[in-house]
Amino acid sequence: MKVKKMYFLAVVTVLQFLLPSVCNAQAAPIDTKMFSASGIQVDVTAKNAAAAREQAMQEGQKRALMVVMERITPDYVIEQLPELVPDDIVNFVQDISVLNEKTSSVRYMATLEVRFNPDAVRELLRQNGLPYVRTSGKPLLILPIYKRSFYASPILWEEENAWLRSWINRSVESHMVPLFVPMGELSDLQTLTVEQILNGDLVAAQALAKRYEAEGILIVELIRNGQTFTVKARAMDELTASEIPNFSFSLPLTKNTATTFARAVKKVVEHLESVWKSEQMVQFNEAASLVALVPVTNLEQWEKIKARLDRIPIISSYYLQAARAGVLQLTVFFAENLERLQKEMSKRRLSLTVLPSGVFKLTEIESTSYLPSVHQKGNLSIEAENKTMMPTVEKHHQTKTSPEIAH
What we know:
By secondary structure, this protein is α+β, with helices and mostly antiparallel strands. The chain is built from 12 helices and 16 strands.
């Protein structure tokens, strides 16, 4: 018992050194695609080539910034998006790639890819009082299973799986939810089989996901029934299921199967982007804070809790205030309201309850088995969370330098 107590005291000591730097970090990883715009074509004629190029760059950067802002904001605020002058826009640009550049004595043509500073774009939207999606989704591994008929055996790695090839060769971009598709190499075949997917072998699936640096797994099954194709998508792991509810749709055979499959891939990608955008939209006009006690027994448990906190869109930052044997005390800054915070935490297997003292307790919810059947019919909806009475939390009016909106 004494050895165990000394071990935990050592753990708390380590946490005291580590946490101040960890908790002030960006609340979630950012996919640079989310804050970049590609395929921006410019064609400008001016008094000389230099003037044409300068004007083209200014116009291209302005259009690219609008593309990014429209991507991460709801449709109803498009008319309210700020329009900046070229001298201001350049401060938001991180770097530019130029392709297919052509010039003459008075004309400049090119295709641009403009990457913006995420913090600068977010701050611009916040200052204008506009809601936005702060971070991209976690990288997903797509498992494209194909059935040539309703009664056919499902296939994945076989050569005749044109559905897998359509995913590998897809042209549609996924900006907000990074997607990875296995190439069907020998090592993939040896790691995961269709049978293991059907049986819900999450360990094998996660081994494949790790190889492709993906954090979640989405099964996307396409079933052909004559001239109609049905797509059914469902998460294979619990945390992905909390962010992306199962969905399905049907589409008719078009010009040929390749074209139909490409359309199906596009619809899946667009749906994932739409779901992420609608679920992760946050209004950062006001911020609130609360103090939470977090019981932990070791570093591994804290890392698991921290990873889940980092997935919550409305948490802007959190700080360690104190650490003692068995308990960490955090101050958490968040947007919108406590009800949504508790709901977002519950989705990610965390529980936030209030103690009689008014201080909150943050604990990990034990994981349950999540082994859905690939052949399950219909869509599955995430169970609604029970609403509880909410204690008062401290409100903050944000300013440009307020810590709770630092990214």
